[in-house]
Amino acid sequence: MSELVARTGRHQQRYEAGRRLVAGCIPFKYTTCVDDVDVDVDVDVSSKKVVQVLMISSTSGPGLLFPKGGWENDETVEEAALREALEEAGVRGDIMSEGLCKAAMYALLVKEELDSWPEQSTRQRSWLTIPEAVESCRHPWMREALEEGFLKWHEDHMITTSENSSD
């Protein structure tokens, strides 16, 4: 059982033009993929970084989601996104981007994956490759945030990182 408690209710939620404002994250991490090669002592095995994103089950139907929820009056939109990642997916990390779509979705580089979190009894979490995540998105707007927001940000960030490391 988690010692953390999820916020509930909508009395502190922010609204704009009658619509509830939400914030969330596309949690991601890097794994190392080693090519399928018979490893010899003298052979250098090539490996590459693969990005994986974390999705969670929905409590209201089939399909997978990125953690997201209401942005409350006593927090910034970034704090709301971090809180939702912790409550719904049990991960902590660093926000790495500006909001990726109208719903204020952020790239979150995962630094810690908790064994216990507030909504673990109602949610399953799954690490997926980008193509798997695109296929699994329950909502078209989440797929759009992944494809047009996160992937573009990730490509730009990786180019910037590789340019800086070659100096």
Automatic annotation (TrEMBL):
Which superkingdom?
Eukaryota
Cofactor(s) demanded: Mg(2+)
**Which Gene3D superfamilies does the UniProt record give?**
Nucleoside Triphosphate Pyrophosphohydrolase
Keyword presence, Amino-acid biosynthesis: no
Which intervals hold domain Nudix hydrolase?
18-150
Signal sequence region:
none
Q: Which UniProt keywords apply?
A: Hydrolase, Magnesium, Metal-binding
A Pfam family that the UniProt record links to this protein: NUDIX
Q: Which family does it belong to?
A: Belongs to the Nudix hydrolase family.
In Swiss-Prot or TrEMBL terms, this protein is called Nudix hydrolase domain-containing protein
| Species this protein is from | Xanthoceras sorbifolium
